Every structure is written in C-alpha cells, then in structure tokens.
C-alpha cells in the first residue's frame, strides 16, 4: 500500500515538473516576420521581424543572429560573422533592430531581380543549440517590382483665390531610405508638409502635402509630383492640370 502511495506521489511530481517546464510556463521561441513584400529592384527593403524567447535566455551580443535561404540554412544572407555570408549578399544586409529588444528587423539594399527568397531568421546560441531556434515557418518572400509604384495625387477642386491643397503619396517597403517627393512649383507662398507613416505590416507611406492659393496665372498650368526612390535611377512623376 505504501509503495502504491509513493508511486502516485512520484507520478504527480513528474506531471507537475513536466507542466512547469513546458513552453506554456517557460515561454517559447517564436518569430513574427512579414510573409511577403513588394520590393523595388535596385532599391532597398526592410523586413519587419520580432521574436520572443524563454525568460531564462537573454539575447545579447554573444548570440549570432542569422538570416538565411529557406532552402538551405547554410546559405546565409546575413550573419554577425561576415565570413559566413554568401558573397553576393556581403555589404548589402544588416540588422536594424536590437536583439535585446526582441527585434530582428533586416535591411537589404541594392535589391537584385533574383533576390526573391524565401529568407528566414535564426539565432545561434553559445551552447550550439541552433535547430531549436530556427524559424523556418516564418519566412519572407520578395515580390520583385521592376518599376517604381505610381505616386497618387488627391485633391479638391481648385478655385481662384481660395486655399487649395494637393497630396502626393507613395507606398514603399524601405523606411530606412524613404522616397523623396518633390513638386515642380517653388514659390515663396507655397507650403509643403511631409508626413511619413506606417500603412500596414511591412509597408509605409510617404506623403507630401502642397498648399497654396491659386491665382489667375495658375489657370491651365500643370502640377507635377515626382517620387525618387533609393537606388539612383528610380524616378516616377505624377501630374494634374489646373
């Protein structure tokens, strides 16, 4: 009878031990990565990435953060150890976030038309436990844009002598190198306000708001907003007639 009681107590102890050492109690390694991004060839892209970890781990500079091809974990597009990075990605990728904040955001510049991915995030701990912290189910795929997206112009009806505003906006995926919006007007009475804001996960919107009071000389004139994207040659104009 005593043996049976002892076995029951041991069983209860084991169940409690298993419960408190489970991911529910100890926390899990999880990653939140944008699944797909529209990226402009020759420009840049920022991949939002955050992760959580068990309380007993404290990510710091001793941990090697890695981004790699989903098809082969050894093909690294980013690593703290630059010698391990694929040659054609060296100097083109870097982390924008801090691991200590659970931020694994990646920036890639000089996008090539074959940089499709999928790309996955991984962490290597000093203990060598790497498989446990590979997030191959949370990877990003790039959809290549050979040409810049069109800026969008929104405005009210222009009436001579009354205040008039026109907004030029463009969506992008590289908040570290935002598009530059310029107008073909440069009078001292014009007021230009620039706004940069999040659109949806992985996407941002740059706005330039032009405000002025139309005069008789503005009749039949053309207002042009031009978006210049990081990468040099990516210019995209949009225009309206007054």
UniProtKB/TrEMBL annotation:
Highest taxon above the source species: Eukaryota
PROSITE patterns: IG_LIKE (PS50835)
Statement: the UniProt record of this protein carries the keyword Signal: yes
Location of the Ig-like domain: 149-241
Leader sequence segment: 1-26
InterPro entries linked to this entry: Ig-like_dom, Ig-like_dom_sf, Ig-like_fold
Key words, A-Z: Signal
Protein name from the UniProt record: Ig-like domain-containing protein
